[in-house]
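=== RUN LOG ===
request id: a7f3
mode: sequence -> structure
chains: 1
length: 163
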Amino acid sequence: MSSSVLHARRTLAARFDRIDRWMSMRMARWGIVLLRSTLGIVFIWFGLLKPLGLSPAESLVLATVSWMPVFDPPTWLAVIGWWEVAIGVTFLIPQTLRIAIALMLLQMVGAFMPLVILSDVTFQSGGAPFAPTMEGQYIIKNLVIIAAALAVGGTVRRRPRPD
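=== RESULT ===
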């Protein structure tokens, strides 16, 4: 192999490394901030849909809470919606991140309940637990939200970077 080809490869590798390092540093700097912010936005957005009567998950939530004491199902729907708004707001405020995660983990217990108590709705006939319906997929995707929240939560003890 000629020295000019080797030089070109090294130059290309060095350029790639600089670009890769630059991109990696930006992702490290902004990734958690964006993840925390989007968790907040999604919880506020989807939470507000419930008390406003606009949630596509309304019938699923109402069927899930129909057995619960104290309130009727529509009231539980509103409570859950406002709870999700509180989760979202606390995700947006860095100082309340621990509260956000605690509220979210409590909410997720209820979010996964339909997989057990409404398996006829959340799984295709004869397909549990490997063939979820659209509703089941909607619930199962919460595993990604939990993982994202844990990744964000893993930053609460990091020392702030000087900007």
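=== NOTES ===
The longest helix spans residues 3-49.
The chain is about 75% helix and 0% strand.
=== END ===
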